[in-house]
Design brief:
- The chain is globular, with a radius of gyration of 23 Å.
- Helix 6 links the parallel strand 4 and strand 5.
- The relative contact order is 0.18.
- Helices cover 35% and strands 14% of the residues.
- Helix 1 packs antiparallel against helix 8.
- The longest helix has 32 residues.
- The chain is of the alpha/beta class and 418 residues long.
- The protein binds pyridoxal-5'-phosphate.
- The site of pyridoxal-5'-phosphate (PLP) has 15 residues, from helix 3.
- The site of pyridoxal-5'-phosphate has 15 residues, from helix 3.
């Protein structure tokens, strides 16, 4: 592919690269339907309602852990709940600080203040939505108790040095793998590196337990049992001597109905990842000759699961800004987006300290010894926000879609190259 002019841009009235809509996902099929019907049939036949913490959920958890090569999994009702339970299992103290990604889904951040801890953003590393070791280091104080490392876009964060920093200071690490089922770092699945990991299994993800769900995963058996207790109102799972509920928590369980869908989906996951990577690789190969656009594939050792593909526009090489570039791409019929999401520190709930009534807690509680009004500069996020753009890819796409994505990029780049 070269960057020679490729015809009039669609935004200026030229022909579009892609004339038909992108293909749908078809995430759920006959197998999921059969699994659900079989569960209902069994319930009708026996007269026993299916429930939660039942045989199907147990089997799903075992299979999920087996997919990651061992360890233990606790299925919960959302990725947000999974982050909450993972943090609860770590027994972090209230009014300590938890480092979180500056840009992530709110579900990867909000559990922190709900535990009366202070969420502290680590800026993105340059050219990626993920936090990097340098940014983590800058966010650490003597009050830091844990780090939530998210693998945004399904692209692994630079786990090696981040873990080294955390371990050298006794700080716990939660891997937020909500977007990263099947992503690898140095050959191992993400989720297997930190103390504990949280996955989302809602139906927009690579792996789903029907409409919503999540999984807490760990290779530490004590943390697994704590997770079980924290995801089910403190019931004394794993404690032989205990009587009654041992800790205060919520009912965040998954259920057998979602679990049967999850088991079918787990079988499909390797094939789905293969297709997604094939499409992504085609885009990467075809974009190789581009001069102003590059693709974030993560740090050395990273193998992305490409929940979405992240592109970087070198603004010194084009005669337009990011929004104009992405608008031109969209006009070519490809659903690119100019921005992922805004940092949580810009949202009203954070700015207004809207967590516990009007108290301003946890920030304003006298037990918090940090500066409750600390301001955070996120220079790398600001630069990223001017230069990164993205497109969602999925297993319903073929090499034809990859060709169209790459062709649109080449056409728009050629039109704006200085
Ligand atoms: C990084 C991250 N963390 C947490 C969540 C929360 O997951 P859920 O939507 O299943 O609650 C999401 C959801 O997209 C996410 O992307």
């Amino acid at each position: 592919m070269t960057t020679r002019p490729r015809g009039e841009l669609a935004i200026k009235g030229g022909p579009r690269v892609r004339k038909e809509p992108m293909p749908p996902r078809h995430l759920f099929g006959e197998e999921e339907k059969r699994a659900v019907i079989a569960l209902f049939d069994k319930s009708i036949e026996t007269g026993e309602a299916f429930s939660y913490n039942g045989p199907e959920e147990e089997a799903y958890c075992k299979q999920f852990a087996a997919f990651l090569g061992g360890g233990q999994a606790d299925a919960v009702n959302s990725g947000t709940s999974a982050v909450y339970v993972a943090l609860r299992a770590l027994d972090i103290e209230p009014f300590t600080e938890v480092i979180v990604p500056s840009v992530s889904d709110m579900g990867g951040v909000m559990p922190v203040p709900l535990m009366n801890c202070i969420p502290v953003p680590a800026d993105c590393a340059p050219g990626t939505y993920n936090m990097g070791p340098e940014q983590v280091e800058k966010a650490i104080t003597e009050r830091t108790s844990a780090i939530v490392v998210a693998h945004i876009a399904g692209t692994p964060a630079d786990l090696g040095p981040i873990l080294e920093i955390a371990r050298s200071r006794g700080i716990k690490v939660v891997e937020d793998c909500a977007q990263a089922h099947g992503a690898r770092y140095n050959g191992e699945y993400v989720g297997t590196f930190g103390d504990i990991a949280a996955f989302s299994t809602m139906s927009g993800k690579h792996h789903a337990t029907a409409a919503q769900g999540g999984v807490v995963y760990t290779r530490n058996e004590a943390l697994y049992w704590k997770s079980r207790r924290c995801s089910d109102r403190g019931k004394p799972f794993g404690l032989e001597e205990a009587e009654g509920n041992v800790t205060c928590s919520l009912n965040l369980n998954l259920n057998d109905l979602s679990a049967v869908v999850g088991m079918v989906q787990l079988k499909k996951l390797p094939g789905m990842l293969e297709r997604i990577r094939l499409v992504a690789q085609k885009v990467i190969d075809r974009c190789e000759p581009l001069q102003a656009v590059s693709i974030d594939q993560g740090p050395p050792g990273a193998e992305s699961a490409f929940w979405f593909m992240v592109f970087r526009l070198d603004l010194d090489k084009v005669s337009c800004d990011l929004d104009t570039f992405v608008e031109a791409l969209r006009a070519e019929g490809l659903p690119f987006s100019a921005h992922y999401t805004t940092p949580f520190i810009q949202h009203p709930w954070f700015k207004n300290r809207a967590v516990f009534g009007n108290s301003g807690y946890p920030w304003t509680c006298p037990l918090y010894t940090g500066d409750p009004n600390r301001r955070y500069e996120l220079p790398n996020w600001k630069a990223n926000n001017r230069s990164l753009f993205l497109i969602k890819i999925h297993e319903g796409m073929t090499l034809r879609e990859a060709e169209d994505i790459a062709e649109a990029l080449a056409k728009v780049e050629a039109a704006f190259l200085k």
